[in-house]
Amino acid sequence: MKLTAEEITQDKIVDKTEVQAKRQQEYKLIGSIVHMPGLTLFEWNVLMGEIKKCEVQHQVIVGIDGKVINKHKATQQKDCHYFEALNMKNAQRKVRNIIKKFNDEHNNRRQLHFS
């Protein structure tokens, strides 16, 4: 069976697109939060208005020098804001304060613009 030049180039194009798709799925570090003992990480979905505990992955690593290193990772969801709070009631209060602060700043900008 002989392959034509078109079939060979089509195979190469498919391979290139697969490599690009794999590169897009890689994870990157967006930011970090210093964990305060006794607090829980919450995520607030801005579009849905939903507050829930964030799923955190815990890792324990033993270094070369024999010291134990605790690492915690949380995957970021789209359109979510992350913060730490003591419990759900405290998290709801923090979200209300964020919304109130945003509305106050927005209203002040509007008043300055039209004055």
What order do the helices and strands come in, and which of them pair?
Blueprint: H1 5-24, E1 40-45, E2 50-53, E3 56-62, E4 68-74, E5 80-85, H2 88-114
Antiparallel strand pairs: 1-2, 1-5, 3-4
**Rg computed from alpha carbons, rounded to a whole number of angstroms:** 24 Å
Which percent range describes the beta-strand content?
25-35%
Class by helix and strand content?
alpha+beta
Q: Uncertain spans, ≥5 residues at pLDDT below 50? A: none
Number of helices: 2
Largest sheet, order of strands side by side? 2-1-5
The first-to-last residue Cα distance is 79 Å
* Assembly type: single chain
Helix proportion of residues, in percent?
A: 40-55%
In total, the number of strands is 5
How would you characterize the largest beta sheet? 3 strands, antiparallel
Following the backbone from N to C, one meets helices and strands in this order, namely HEEEEEH
| Broad shape | elongated
Mean pLDDT over the residues: 81
